[in-house]
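#struct-queue
[09:14] JT: dropping the first one here, sequence first, then the structure tokens:
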Amino acid sequence: MLIGKVVGSVVSTRKCENLTGNKFMIVEVLEHMHSGAKQLIAIDKIGAGIGEYVLVAQGSAARIGSGMPDSPVDAAIVGIIDDGSGLE
């Protein structure tokens, strides 16, 4: 699991049918947590907003955590951090 900050959103009017109705957010992974990409696109089923720090699951954990085990989801926001002293 990673910690990141929501920095934007993505709008896609054409996508796989089983992704319709979902919100996609751009998450900037915290410097000390990333091993490769500094930003990723994560499906958001919990209502995170821009500027919030979030927990992100990847791979099969993202699909299961978002309740979409048969969807092409690689990253999902699974929690909003209330208190993250020392995050930055």
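[09:21] JT: and here's the second one, same format:
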Amino acid sequence: MTAGMDFRSDNVASAAPEIVDAVVEAARTSATPYGGDPVTERLEPAFSALFETEVKVFPVVTGTAANALAVAALTPPWGVIYAARAAHVENDECGAPEFMTGGAKVTGIEERCGKIVPAALEAALAAAGAGEVHWSQPACLSLTQPTEMGQVYTPDELAALTGIARRHGLAVHMDGARFGNAVAACGASPAALTWRAGVDALSFGATKNGALAAEAIVLFETGRAADLAFRHKRAGQLLSKMRFVSAQLAAYVADGLWLRLAAQANGQARRLARGLEAVPGATLAAPVEANEIFVTLPRAVIEGLAEAGVLFYLWPETDPQATTIRLVTRHDTETGEVAALIETAQRLAAGAA
């Protein structure tokens, strides 16, 4: 395999040195278990300052746990969670949201490049049978930021969707596995992209952007914290040595590290997209706004890239003859890695002409 050119996912990325150093520092002494340590106790003040409002923070070790527990805090067992058809809570959590809520159902809504179509959401809620005892009841809207196609919701777009949710009595969750990439891409504040736009709970991702294994559930609707504390423990996410997860999160948000790392990934994505647009036969399947690129290519080029050692996923992954591939840049993607992929694609396209 050619060295480098690994564009499968930002989950393959290395850990940021600042975060590794923070874990090493946390390992130097003993500390109170189950979140009673000084590092964990500093998280809520740090995140409250970051989001410009009082929040409750629950560290977890996977995005699945963050999403499933967050929607469980907002949804009763008889509730319905509305999400984009391609959303992780709908397709990639192995039923965890349904399990953690005790039986709520997830319903997919029409989308465009992963963004929920407001009229489709309005129509689904209007026909949902609110108050009808024989039907599951509308309870939660889950938004992915950035979307599964790498698109970033603006504050106004979020407010339009959360406004519909509010009129129908729904709480709002945000899957922010790549939240740093969204903030770095659009320049809006974390507050503007969450609670000011009507979000009640955020799955705040760090693992994809430089952490070893650390996510956080950030509750803006703090009245739900007492209930979530028990769900958090019951799900096995109240770690005895919580300081090692908290140290990652604390270092991640300190001094803007999370945004610098995300900006690096986003910048490499833009560089890669510009190069691929110049490849004969290549077409971007969606605008590149964060750190994901979806590009349609001739099959001969796709097969040649794989043979050359470029690592990527077909889109959709389940179609072995797909002509669109997904490429994801990371905080540690090097310019040479991007240049090598572009050069390889150009050479293959020229040979296929």
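[09:30] RK: nice, looked through the second one.
[09:31] RK: The chain has a mean pLDDT of 96.
[09:31] JT: good to know. The CA atoms of residues 53 and 184 lie 20 Å apart.
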